[in-house]
Amino acid sequence: MDFKITEEYALELDNKDPLKEYRSQFHIPVINGKESIYFTGNSLGLQPKTTKQYLEEELEDWKNLGVEGHFHAKHRPWFHYHKFTKVLLAEIVGAKPIEVVSMNNLTSNLHLMMVSFYQPTNKRYKIIMEGGAFPSDQYAVESQVKFHGLKPSEAIVEIFPRSGEDTLRTEDIIDVIKEHGGSVALVLFSGVQYYTGQYFDIRSITSSAHEVGAFAGFDLAHAVGNVKLDLHDSGADFATWCSYKYLNSGPGGVSGIFVHERHANNSELPRFAGWWGHDEGQRFKMEKGFIPMEGADGWQLSNVNVLSSAAHLASLKIFEEAGLEALRKKSSQLTNYLRYLLKSLNSDLINIITPDSEGAYGCQLSIVIKEKGKKVFDELTKAGVIADWREPEVIRVAPVPLYNTFKDVYTFYSILKKTMNL
Ligand SMILES: *Cc1c(COP(=O)(O)O)cnc(C)c1O
Questions:
Q1: DSSP assigned state of 193
Q2: Which atom of ligand 1 is nearest to the CA of 43?
Q3: pLDDT (0 to 100) of residue 353
Q4: Where a domain ends, among 262, 290, 319?
Q5: CB-based contacts of 193, cutoff 8 Å, min separation 6
Q6: Which of 95, 273, 275, 346 has the fewest CB atoms within 10 Å of its CB?
Q7: What CATH number is associated with residue 299?
Q8: How far is the CA of 112 from the centre of ligand 1 (A)?
Q9: Ligand 1 centroid – CA 94 distance (Å)
Q10: Where N6-(pyridoxal phosphate)lysine occurs along the chain (predicted)?
Q11: Which tens digits make up the pLDDT trace of 256-265?
Q12: Are residues 266 and 345 both part of a single domain?
């Protein structure tokens, strides 16, 4: 990679960036009178300027129409709201429209998916997952296991990196799945690991889960809107994600699920039901007897959270316009530039734990700064960088292609260099 270590060069890259206009479509937080270097789009994406209008349209329809807004809203009739996000989301996760729906929140959806895809028997009862998964996922899995009367220590198999390594090798994941074979009920991984930034090989993990007769599911909280996903072709049974990280849909925003087409009409799968998953044509007959909608829609419980979905829609339109391919291309350039600059510091104190092989990372770099990590982090914050400190020792930075610049990356590097006296 022939990048250069000058501010002029960073500005030149910005100038040539085909997506450069998108930054102005977002509100950038200001610190001490200056636009911050916002590197936490992996935690809470920034607000698109169009979000306000989408929300106001819903408020207006509610104000003017009351309940009539369900079918006669001037802008987007609420009854159909989940359909407005469907095609855009399908594109983003590499799925067919029938396989996705936006609904609820992430951890709730993870539970709903496990209701369907974790049905332990005496022989087949284990869940294999990455060690150090996001705590909410750990709690969800443990409580599901206990709900079925099993012991987490016996039913949950966590995979950790080899000693001296920071991230998992796909071959090791596959070996563990094989080793546990017919006792595995579910293999549940994140798409991009929140702590290390590692993008797992969804396709290989899915195939080896299927080889031993287990289901494969993925938590894509840090993958959606970040890396290229091919959920349908990967064969994964289910996935779920949130919309407030890379998808910029606002704090606590509506989540989404993917259920593979092969389960679209699978009546063998148990599920928790609600009226919004019931056959749409019959829904208002208010009759007994649940008839699930085909595909992911059949997992819906409640009527759509319209305000949150409006914010979601505003953001998804930007993704559609910018194009996933262009976003991915800029993203890898930004992240590669950041890695290049950090490596040029040639310091034993800095260790980037995010893998560097193509296809094994997204926007985020997880940087361990030995000895004085927290102190360096605090200095960065003072200098106007919004990054993320994760215990025990990692600074996570995620330059995102929609609104971050090469200049942001360069300035971050200069501040870090100065702070560490390198
Ligand atoms: C962000 C994140 C969550 C958060 O869950 P919510 O239900 O949206 O609060 C859960 N799991 C992972 C892996 C995450 O990255």
A1: -
A2: 1
A3: 97
A4: 319
A5: 130, 132, 133, 167, 199, 200, 222
A6: 346
A7: 3.40.640.10
A8: 14
A9: 21
A10: 245
A11: 999 999 999 9
A12: no
